[in-house]
Amino acid sequence: MERRSFLAGAGGALAALPFATGAAAAASGPTGGVGLLRSYVANRDQFPQAQAPEPNEILQLERRPERAYDPASIAVLRGDGSQLGFLPSASAGLLAALLDQGFAAYATTLPGTGGSEIALQVYLDKDLSQVHWMASS
Hints:
single chain, alpha+beta, Alpha-Beta Plaits, six-stranded antiparallel sheet, 4 helices, 6 strands, 23% strand, globular, metal-binding, signal, TAT_signal
């Protein structure tokens, strides 16, 4: 596959994506994903019943375009489906565009983060079978 076709198929978003730097970018995720960015769980106060995840726990990322406050919203959920919060809008914009094109992403909690902030490493899944490819002109 030509590089141009791949980037066009991703809606051009991959070309502008702020990929993680250093060892995090080179590391693959626990299920073979590619390290994309570091972020955190925002809006934790809206989900006080959700128990904090364990270090290195794999979390689901789910698009929530119907959310009026931020149409690029991405919910952060534990394996049991309980919602922890959302990715902050600064992290969600381009990732939302990729998810809308069929890419899959997940996150893991980073160890050693104390307090109420839950730090995350976000990974882009390597399984491209669900990606909506566009033909380049």
